[in-house]
UniProtKB/TrEMBL annotation:
Native source species: Nitratireductor aquibiodomus
Record key words, sorted: Membrane, Transmembrane, Transmembrane helix
Transmembrane segments: 12-38
Protein name: Nitrogen fixation protein FixH
Name of a matching Pfam family: FixH
InterPro entries cross-referenced by the UniProt entry: FixH, FixH_proteobacterial
Length: 165
């Protein structure tokens, strides 16, 4: 026999500290990641009664498919206090609209919600002088274009320095 005795490694306070830092570091990292993805992907859509909202889901989905088949595109512009909107057909020509209503709300609060009735502008588009504050907004535009159902355009936008980003 060689007489070599192996000494066991000792578990110290530094080992426990490393385990605790690693454990809580993983938990905090996962929580921050989940919070980031939740905040960046939430549309802000809140309904008072989910059952009632679900009853019209299929009809609204069909309206959306019909609208998408038209190939129309809405142009939204924000410059300072002026918000303008016009609707273009598939070839890029303006579509005559009867009226345009815009609902603006923040994704996380109802404190700044506002409904704006846009006015016809000289260029055929619609606009309103309303200076939305900087930040993220959800814009819900309803345009009457002489169709069976109104044209709906919903966007999540970011305004920085009074301009659309």
């Amino acid at each position: 026999m060689s007489g070599k005795v192996q000494k066991q490694k000792e578990f110290t306070g530094w080992h426990m500290l490393a385990i605790m830092v690693a454990f809580f570091g993983v938990i905090i990292t996962v929580n921050l990641t989940m919070a980031f993805y939740a905040q960046s992907s939430w549309t802000g859509l809140i309904v008072k009664n989910t059952y009632v909202a679900s009853q019209t889901f299929n009809e609204r989905a069909e309206e959306g498919r019909q609208q998408a088949a038209l190939g129309w595109k809405g142009e939204l512009s924000v410059e300072g206090d002026a918000i303008t909107y016009r609707l273009l057909d598939a070839s890029g020509d303006p579509i005559p609209l009867e009226s345009v209503t815009m609902v603006m709300h923040r994704p996380v609060t109802a404190d700044e919600d506002v409904t704006l009735q846009m006015q016809r502008r000289s260029d055929g588009g619609f606009g309103v002088d309303h200076g939305p504050g900087d930040g993220t907004w959800v814009i819900n535009i309803t345009a009457q274009a002489g169709l069976e159902h109104p044209y709906r355009d919903v966007r999540r936008i970011t305004i920085v320095g009074g301009e659309l980003r």
